[in-house]
TrEMBL record:
Superkingdom, natural source: Bacteria
The entry's keywords: Isomerase
PANTHER family in the cross-refs: D-SERINE DEHYDRATASE, ZGC:162816-RELATED
Pfam families (alphabetical): Ala_racemase_N
Organism: Kineosporia corallincola
Residue ranges of every copy of the Alanine racemase N-terminal domain listed in the record: 28-277
EC number: 5.1.1.1
Protein name: Alanine racemase
Gene3D superfamilies hit by this protein: Alanine racemase
UniProt entry tagged with the keyword Isomerase: yes
GO molecular function, one term: alanine racemase activity
Amino acid sequence: MTATITPAATKIRLDTATAHLDPPVAVIDLPSLETNAADLLRRAQGKPIRLASKSIRCRAVLERVHGQPGFAGVLGYTLAEAIWLATDPTHPFPDVVVGYPTAERGALRRLAADEVARERVTLMIDSAEQLDFIDAAAPGHPEISVCIDLDASLRAAGGRVHIGIRRSGVFTADDALALARTVAGRPGFRLTGIMAYEGQVAGLGNRPAGKPLYGLAVTAMQALSVRELAARRAEVVAAVDAEFPLRFVNGGGTGSLETTTAEDAVTELTAGSGLYGPGLFDAYRQFSVAPAALFGTDVVRRPRPGFVTVTGGGWIASGPAGADRVPIPTYPQGLSLTGTEGAGEVQTPLHGVVADVLAVGDRVWFRHAKAGELAEHVAAFQLVGADGTVQEVPTYRGENQHFL
Ligand SMILES: Cc1ncc(COP(=O)(O)O)c(C=O)c1O
């Protein structure tokens, strides 16, 4: 029989492992990271998962997960980052697709000059304008691998309703084939893949807390979108692959692994956030995440019964500003932010019955609403094992690497 790990036991383990560190302190709870990685693999049903590095932003964690069977390649977020990951002397990542188009002139010049980086890095494009930009930034560059970003949004009512990310102008098989032919006709470029990220499925929770009707509407929209995209993605891939054999077709994200992997046209998936288990990923019906990345800060005062105030706490996530972007008090269980102050710049009041058992100096653990952004606030993560051992590893910020 395996013993259940209770939230109270996890809190004690994290508190003890980090007791020597002043707040704020950020941890990766390794048992939870492993649970989350295993669950991503289960949901991927055998298709390889490319790691979305924006949602991790720590090389030690990337290396650790990438080394497990079932994970292959990185979906980077800037070209400078991709070159850095691909050309590291001790642990180079052999396959980094930059998930978004780039306008980094200096990094493009470095890519053009570096044969190893060019072998390992693929750029994202959705129009000939980006090819022109690359040519202008690095005139006469040797062959660069590119991937076409197919728009995966749902268009309804004859195009008047747009649901999903406003991303690429490539929507139909004709659009994709035309761009693939343009790439083939331009010296210095090689088409290697197609990516389509269905953010309205993969990144939008279908069980939002306290909004059951909205959740049902999201679920219905997602079912429609999954059907529409499966047919369109198959058509696009068949058309392009027949003329220009593709090395990979990438799709999905943490929230869509089940449906994306079911498409025969897709050869690999992407996921990142599901490893850390941030707050926004509590809102899904078909899976749950374990809290793996947390930040801890300490009680500094007790304004009145039922309340404690901790230092800092206000690490707010990107995206449409709203209540779901604030950090979530996680350990001890039973604490909430206040409606009037929220998560503050220098201090955060929290309330709940459990507040009365906390003293000045006690640690409270929060989850960030999003995954990788936590790493921008701290120089290191403490990797805490099941036995309470702790290893400090630098985040990207701790390695003095700031890409966004
Ligand atoms: C292109 C792309 N693919 C995949 C993902 C999924 O990443 P995650 O699993 O971290 O949500 C994202 C997230 O925004 C993305 O932009």
